[in-house]
């Protein structure tokens, strides 16, 4: 214990790291079994991440123009995007395939009409919420942390006044 403290680490940080490492190792075991259903999930996840990313863009513009009340919506959509990305990762999706699928999804969505994109976004939000509800505590914490970090990168830290 003194060795840990002398290294500047708190025991709780070390425990958190151990839990995350164990979770990732256990999850990696199931990630190797990619089948046709998994490949379809990868395509759907990429499509949903692209749709959610497109939904966030105008909200960011509104936020930067002074509509700070959009921040919770930005965070929620970002969390849903990371839920899809994390689930796909756990099922075995890696780069360069992930980047290729994302580029394909963004390209396909440019050719879709407004109503199609709106329907896709609504379906993806519903599916993302279902995936999030199925996630365990650690997975949810990782998604929230990653989304919060991304939103802070995009918008800056939240003013807590």
Précis, in short:
This protein has 161 residues and is mostly helical. The chain has seven helices and no strands. 80% of the residues lie in helices and 0% in strands.
Unreliable spans: 1-12, 28-34
Largest sheet: none
Average of per-residue pLDDT values? 84
* SSE run: HHHHHHH
In terms of DSSP E residues, the strand content is under 5%
Backbone shape: globular
Number of helices: 7
Measured between the Cα atoms of the first and last residue, the distance is: 38 Å
What share of residues is helical? Answer: over 70%
Structural class computed from helices and strand pairing: mainly alpha
Provide the gyration radius in Å. 18 Å
The total of beta strands comes to 0
How do the helices and strands line up, and which of them pair or pack?
Blueprint: H1 2-6, H2 11-31, H3 36-64, H4 71-90, H5 97-110, H6 114-134, H7 137-155
